[in-house]
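Hi there,

I know you've been waiting on this one. I reran it after we fixed the sequence typo, so this is the corrected version. Both the input and the resulting structure follow.
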Amino acid sequence: MRTWTGVIRTTDRDAYREYIVETGLSGYKSTAGNIDAWMVYRDRGDGTTEVVTLSLWESRGAIVGFAGRDIDRAVFYPEDDRYLIDRDLFVRHYDVVA
C-alpha cells in the first residue's frame, strides 16, 4: 500500500476532491497493477483539512509504472500548488498482510 499526506484549506475540500478524482486517483487506477485507490480526509478544526491518499498495488514493481523509478517520491500535478498548503514530498509504502 502506498500512502501520501497533504493539507488543504477546508473551504477547498470539495474542489480538491474533484481535482484528485480526475488526476491522482485516475492515474493510480489506470496504471497496470493497481488494485484500488482512495482519498480520505479529516477537518482539523482550524480551517485546514488533512488529506491522505491510499493506493493498493499488486507489487512494489507495479508502483514504478505510476511513480517512476524512485517510488518513494510523491507524484504531483500542475494544479497542486493551487490547493496544497502543506504536503509530504515522500510517500510511505506498507506491506499488506490482511
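Quick highlight: The radius of gyration is 13 Å.

Best,
R. S.
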